[in-house]
Amino acid sequence: MSRRRVVVTGIGMVSPVGTSTAECWDACLAGRSAVGPIPEHWWRWWSGFQSTAWAPLPAVDFEAAGIKPIEAMRLDKSAMLAIVAAGEALADAGYQMSLVDAKRRIWRLDGIDGDRAGVFMGTGVGGITTVIEAQNSHLLAPFQSLDRRAGPEVAEPTRDALEVLLASVTRFNPLAVSMLMPNAVSAVLGIRYSLRGPNATCALACAAGTAAIGRAFRSILCGETDVALCGGAEYVGDPFGGVFRGFDAAKTLARVVDVPQTANRPFDRGRTGFLLAEGGAAVLVCEEMEHALRRGARMQAEIVGFGESFDAYSMMFVEPSGEQMIRAIGLSLDDARLVPADVDYINAHGTGTIINDEVESVVIERVFGSRPLVNATKSLTGHCIGASGAIEAAITALSLRDQKVHGCVNLHDPVRPLNFARRSMDARLITAVSQSLAFGGHNAALVMRQAGPE
Amino acid sequence: MSDSDAAPPSAEVVARVDAVIRDVLGLDAGALSPSSRLKEDLGADSVDAVVLVMALEREFKGQMSDAEAAGLSTVGDIAGYISLWIGKQSS
Fold it and tell me: Do A70 and B50 make contact, defined as CB atoms within 8 angstroms?
């Protein structure tokens, strides 16, 4: 029996460069990156941030995406972003849906056997914003009634900060646990769309989205499911900049040397770190090819291989030889029954940290040489952590569909003479690799092909 | 506190309370009457109850005590409670 095939029939995306797939893709092709100063109210006088820039999200119209204000009280922002992306992906795939439970906000998708449909979503930090907001309420509510008893001897910035903080204390959210648990996003999507097959969360930090799509691919390949919603979602814009500080204190973030717009520069010799994104989500509708053909769905790309490995080396640093990154890429190509010479385009992890880009560029040169086009979507979107691999897989699928690649912003003096796409261009693309690596030591790679039934 | 001598809630308060309850419980217009019991008649579960408190706090801009909220069992109870609450805020 021939191997089942897995195609991408729908793509949904929210990122700092846009609130829909079309907006994000257009921004990437136009070279419009997202960068801005971190919020003024983020405890800057206490925290001494080394980095002062991030990639903020644009305003997202959650109501237009079908999320009622009342639902926002029981969902972490990461889940709300995931719903926006999933709704867009399902509509893009041509699925109609009907409301079956108004209170629980549950829809049924026409033409899907819910028992054979799964959800595989990646996250880096789960519902971290809910954790921080709930603990803010828990710790500070008793002080609300003290009414500035500290008096004039407290330095003014501190007093102002305390007033802002105490004014922000609200009811401890009784739904906090269901909002902050890392599996919340996958569960929310499974409930919302009546998908009752495997429902899993990949907590693999910056490789989470890639690995989640890989697991969906394998689930369809082995016959466990016919359809899967897969990708990643992340939201780290907590009210106090606590998550930002975690990355900043670890000295991983891009420094503003000149102007904020040039701080994010993957694969450039002048890079200083990665630009943290406020959040983002990408969801792919992956489908067994016959299932897609039967309902006349548009196939945007095919997923043909997945591989992963683990460095077993350091929680924070890429293993310098890149051996396990090379092995993950090799496993993905073996899975696809392809060789490095078949690959036309690599959507690199490309964070902009000194060590990542150094090791990753050596790996690409060793495995692929300097023929395939290489770019880093993070040069435009910033780093969406657990959503980044999914956003990049989505961009890779769009590149294959439209036969175009976006450029690497701020890449002027490349770390190595690879075939970097410095600006957007048309390109003949049959096979592409989207690769990710992560804190902890996770490596993951997806191989995708231009869609076609041949 | 006895609300027997309180003025009945205004039509505006009743309409806003009805809208919040219907929103939380996913009910159509006309599904509620003042005597509708949240749990027995409208199917509210314990999660709905806490969401309802949060939604009422947001709609009427204030904080309800959990003990007082626990004592409200019908749509009319809630409208009466909110009406008194608004009266206290404005007095």
Answer: no
Which residues are registered as beta bridge partners of A10? Answer: A285
Q: Does domain A6-127+181-449 have CATH number 3.40.50.720?
A: no
**pTM score over 0.90:** yes
Nearest-CB residue to A171 (from B24, B26, B57): B57
Look-up of token digits 């100063």 = A37
Domain residue ranges of chain A, discontinuous segments joined by +: 6-127+181-449, 129-177
What fold does the segment set B11-90 form as a domain?
1.10.1200
Residues contacting A246, CB < 8 A, separation 6+: none
- Phi and psi at A265, nearest 5°, equal -140, 70
CB environment A224-242: b (16+ within 10 A), e (fewer): ebbbbbbbbbbbbbbbbbb
Question: In this structure, are residues A447 and A335 in contact, taking their beta carbons and an 8 Å threshold?
Answer: yes
Give CA separation, A64 vs A4, A67, A156, B43, in Å.
Answer: 37, 7, 42, 28
How much is the ipTM here?
Answer: 0.83
Contact (CB<8Å) B26/A68: no
Confirm whether B45 is a catalytic residue. Answer: yes
Nearest CA of chain B to the CA of A238: how many Å? 21
- What tokens were used for A132? 């921080």
Q: Which amino acid is at A436?
A: S
Please give the DSSP secondary-structure letter assigned to residue A435: E
Tokens of A217: 């691919």
The answer to whether A68 faces chain B, any CB pair under 8 Å, is yes
A321-347 residue pLDDT tens: 999 999 999 999 999 999 999 999 999
Does A230 qualify as catalytic in the annotation?
no
Boundaries of every domain in chain B:
11-90
Q: How do residues B56-82 score in pLDDT, each as one tens digit?
A: 999 998 888 888 888 999 999 999 999
* Beta-carbon count within 10 A of A352 CB: 28
Single-letter amino acid, residue A107: W
Catalytic one among B23, B45, B48, B77? Answer: B45
